[in-house]
Specification:
Structural class: mainly alpha
Strand order of the largest sheet: 1-2
Number of helices: 4
Radius of gyration: 20 Å
Low-confidence stretches: none
Shape: flat
Number of domains: 1
Helix content: 55-70%
């Protein structure tokens, strides 16, 4: 399988690479993604930009893997925080709108 971009979740990348090997046949997965990918542009920040500028010339594949893994972890953490805040607000709404007392 040839991947041309990274997704926001590493789980999706692993699933797609896993689909290349099925029914006992060996498979392979190769990623050709630019550091100007949407994941890097949206969530990269200035520090990763400096890292790319400094070390990207000498070690582009190493930097690419490092940057995308770090960015994917950052995005996954942001999504986790959003889900936990949503759960908290749902619980607060449930208790504030419970006019009759406890739920049955």
């Amino acid at each position: 399988m040839i991947a041309t971009e990274f997704h926001e979740a590493t789980r999706i990348d692993r699933q797609l690479c896993g689909r290349s090997a099925r029914q006992g046949d060996p498979g392979s997965c190769e990623v050709f993604a630019s550091l100007e990918d949407s994941l890097v542009r949206q969530h990269g920040g200035w520090l990763i930009g400096k890292l790319i500028q400094y070390a990207g010339r000498h070690y582009p594949q190493l930097i690419g893997r490092f940057v995308t893994r770090r960015l994917q972890k950052r995005v996954e953490k942001e999504h986790s925080n959003i889900r936990s805040q949503l759960l908290e607000s749902d619980e607060q709404l449930e208790t504030s709108l419970a006019f009759t007392g406890s739920k049955q």
